[in-house]
Design goal:
CATH class: Mainly Alpha
Number of domains: 1
Membrane topology: Multi-pass membrane protein
CATH architecture: Up-down Bundle
Strand content: under 5%
CATH superfamily: Amino acid/polyamine transporter I
InterPro entries: Amino_acid_transport_2
CATH topology: Amino acid/polyamine transporter I
Helix content: over 70%
Main location: membrane
Protein name: HAAAP family serine/threonine permease
Pfam family, one: Trp_Tyr_perm
Structural class: mainly alpha
């Protein structure tokens, strides 16, 4: 008996280590998906209305982010087929027509962001080569193709390798975000607390900034792959373990990102934030201009490149799933068989060529794309899982009053996006 106990303990310890490693890898992958280049604009967008609305938003962003992503994860885990992804799951629950529409929406909320990252990585690397390394302006067609093909190439090597690469990228990102936040502390001032506040101005700021926060903290493109991995490894225990990982991801996201936002907002005056907004400058560029510090110029480029790469991988996963789902659904409706190997090769070619074309042309439609993508994103991330909890038998066990909060935040996010981009 004693011998059996000795043998069991190392095995249990090894299993715990493997589980811990898996959870950490996915936590970093989800964090990397959420922290895209948008983090560099978040302090300007979130801080423009003053410090008091920002404090309220800090209190609500954690439950907003966690509950919405947990709802979507639960939806991904609710299929009868243990190997189903999100597109197959919504088709199973809502039928072929509604499933195809939701799959199209899922694709439309992720693919355009992939295009933005193609433009972003090309511009940032080109800027780094010219301004920091003193090189001649590179050929944009060649540079953009090499960068996009390299990023997609990493994805094609397999999920385990991608998780390792993403995790490696996230560490310097966290380090630079935290380092910048701490570095700015001696420059903090109280001008934000002295700015006049009215109730209507306070509520308007919160209403218009919630959509920005939804966008900044979104890691839904990687949720389907995340849920699928947990279900394959843990079966019926997948939901509890996935929820725990999502909770840790949310705490990490809110902790590092909001510390960075507060540090930036408390360093700059309301007038300086307005100037930055008008000039459409990322926050690190503002500090580089203010201090004439070459270290900041390098850090701005490094943060942007790392943030874009880590976020690209998560959005690639979602884009691939959405495209795959639409192709398979169409083939099934027409009674055709599907060669998944050919479909995958076609998807890889489409993503490389389309992202490369947009990156090469340097299309300036980022604001418009975000305005169109964000409402669809809010519907899929906040509203669809709550609706599924009411209508899908496998999801009814999750129906609770707290879902009303998620539903309200989703509606506010959609109305906020529409108001900010099409009314104001």
């Amino acid at each position: 008996m004693a011998h059996a106990e000795v043998m069991t303990q190392p095995m249990a310890g090894t299993r715990d280590k493997a589980a811990s490693k898996r959870d950490t890898e996915w936590m970093l992958a989800l964090f990397g998906t959420a922290i895209g280049a948008g983090v560099l604009f978040l302090p300007i967008n979130a801080g423009l209305g003053g410090i008091w609305p920002l404090i309220l938003m800090t209190l609500i962003i954690a439950p907003m982010t966690f509950l919405a992503h947990r709802g979507l994860t639960r939806l991904c885990l609710s299929s009868k087929n243990p190997n189903a992804d999100i597109t197959q799951t919504v088709t199973e629950h809502f039928g072929p027509k509604a499933g195809s529409l939701i799959t199209l929406g899922y694709f439309a909320s992720i693919y355009p962001i992939l295009l933005i990252y193609g433009i972003g990585i090309t511009n940032t690397v080109s800027s780094l080569m010219v301004n920091q390394l003193g090189m001649a302006e590179p050929n944009r067609a060649i540079l953009s193709f090499v960068l996009v093909a390299a990023l997609v190439g990493v994805m094609v090597t397999g999920q385990k390798f991608v998780l390792k690469v993403t995790n490696t990228l996230v560490y310097p990102l966290i380090l630079v975000l935290f380092g910048t936040s701490v570095y700015l502390i001696p420059q903090w001032n109280m001008s934000q607390f002295e700015a006049p506040v009215t109730f209507s101005g306070f509520m308007t700021t919160v209403f218009l900034t919630i959509p920005v926060l939804v966008f900044a903290f979104n890691h839904s493109p990687a949720v389907s792959s995340f849920a699928s991995t947990y279900r394959k490894e843990l079966g019926n225990d997948a939901e509890a373990h996935a929820s725990r990982t999502l909770k840790r991801t949310t705490m990490m996201l809110v902790g590092f990102t909001m510390f960075f936002v507060y540090s930036c907002v408390l360093t700059l005056s309301p007038a300086e934030l307005l100037e930055a907004k008008a000039a459409n400058l990322p926050i690190m560029s503002v500090f580089a201009q203010r201090t004439d510090n070459t270290l900041f110029a390098w850090m701005a480029q490094i943060v942007a490149i790392v943030a874009i790469c880590s976020s690209f991988f998560g959005h690639y996963m979602g884009t691939r799933e959405g495209l795959q789902g639409m192709i398979v659904n169409k083939a099934k409706r027409e009674g055709k068989s599907v060669n998944m190997k050919k479909v995958d090769m076609g998807i890889i070619a489409f993503i490389i060529l389309s992202v490369w074309a947009v990156a090469y042309m340097n299309v300036s439609v980022m604001g418009m794309i975000e305005a169109l993508v964000a409402p669809i994103l809010a519907m899929i991330l906040f509203i669809l899982p709550v609706y599924a909890m009411k209508k899908v038998p496998a999801m009814r066990k999750y129906d609770a009053k707290i879902n009303l909060f998620t539903l309200c935040m989703g509606i506010i996010a959609i109305l906020g996006f529409i108001t900010a981009n099409f009314i104001l």
